[in-house]
Amino acid sequence: MNIRIPILQAILLVLISILIGIGSNILSSKPLPWFAVELSVVEDVEIKSNEPILAAISIEQAKLFFDDEVLFVDARDEGYFEAGHIKGAMKNIFLYELIFNIEEKQNKDTPLVVYCGDPGCGDSEQLAYDLKDSGFTKLYVFKGGWLEWSKAGYPSEVGK
Amino acid sequence: MKYLLTGPIILFSRVILGGVFIFASLDKISNPEAFATAISNYHVMPFGLENLLALILPWLEFLAGVCIIAGIMVDGAAIMIIIMNMVFIIAISQALARGISIECGCFSVSSASEGDNIGLITVIRDIGYLILAFLVFYRQKYQFEFFPKSI
């Protein structure tokens, strides 16, 4: 193998990265699953039950929650929030402040809905897992997010 | 043109690129989970591959950065930086074109409110790095390169 050949050098760099990346994950105290798994969408939501839950919901279910005045949390960046968000949604400034703000309104086993930009964005799921780690037990991820909500013409608002 | 490919600008480019790529890799290496989220926000990875990419890509950035500064396999490092920047430019452009509102995940992935959103400026920045990497790859004078040894 002639290491002077540029493409071989590039391949070598990739191979070393794969080795270190996979190796460090195996040795890590908090390893990442090798493949990302998506939350499954639940159809019938039993809002009264006390079972802890972290699940995805459809736009129809999200609208029902909205009408029931369930708290919505916008997981997107501030700029996007200010440009438009679900009416009454809480802004995600940073996690501890958000938790503080939520707990001022409701306790940790009251349902809340997290959403982000569009059906594939991961911020809402990420935030939901963070909130779960912080002790919240009834978490719903509205996968359709701002895109589906605004398309459907449901109540929304702009600004801070 | 010849001056561009022989002068101190090559060394300058190597230091800039190396610094940028090492800096960009550190937060991702310590936070693969957050970086996986940042990748999945772009909607370009199939089959849940974002996790594997989130584990490997930061190390590739780090290694390429170290190599291009330290003069180790500079050609290979330049190729990888060119490829990575092309991928970044495509990923960001398609997200912009589709109107997806996301954070860049370019340098910092740990905070949710970093304000590092993607935009035209992100693309232009990456094109700048791409040009520097091409200069390094097509350099005609080999300075401060230790493996393989400069001829």
Commentary on this structure:
The complex is a heterodimer of chains A (160) and B (151). The longest helix of chain A has 22 residues. Chain A has two domains: 35 residues; 105 residues, Oxidized Rhodanese, domain 1 (3-Layer(aba) Sandwich). Chain A contains six helices and seven strands; from the N terminus they run αβαβαββαβαβαβ. With 160 residues, chain A is α/β, with parallel strands linked by helices. Chain B is mainly alpha-helical and 151 residues long. Chain B has one domain. Helix content of chain B is 66%, strand content 0%. Chain B is built from six helices and no strands. In chain B, helix 3 packs across helix 4 and helix 4 packs across helix 5. Chains A and B meet through helix 1, helix 3 and helix 5 of A and helix 3, helix 4 and helix 5 of B.
Features:
heterodimer, A: 160 residues, two-stranded antiparallel sheet, 7 strands, B: 151 residues, 6 helices
Q: What is the C-alpha radius of gyration of chain B, as a whole number of Å?
A: 16 Å
Q: What's the pLDDT, averaged over the residues of chain A?
A: 88
Class computed from helices, strands and strand pairing of chain B: mainly alpha
User: What share of the residues of chain B does DSSP label as strand, in percent?
Assistant: under 5%
Q: Report the largest inter-chain contact.
A: A-B, 49 and 47 residues
How many runs of DSSP E, i.e. beta strands of chain A?
Answer: 7
Shape of chain A: elongated
Portion of residues in helices of chain B?
Answer: 55-70%
Number of helices of chain A: 6
Helix and strand succession of chain A? HEHEHEEHEHEHE
Radius of gyration of chain A: 20 Å
Distance between the termini of chain B: 22 Å
Point out poorly predicted stretches of chain A. none
Query: What does the oligomeric state look like here?
Result: heterodimer
How much helix, percentage-wise, in residues of chain A?
Answer: 40-55%
* Biggest sheet descriptor of chain B: none
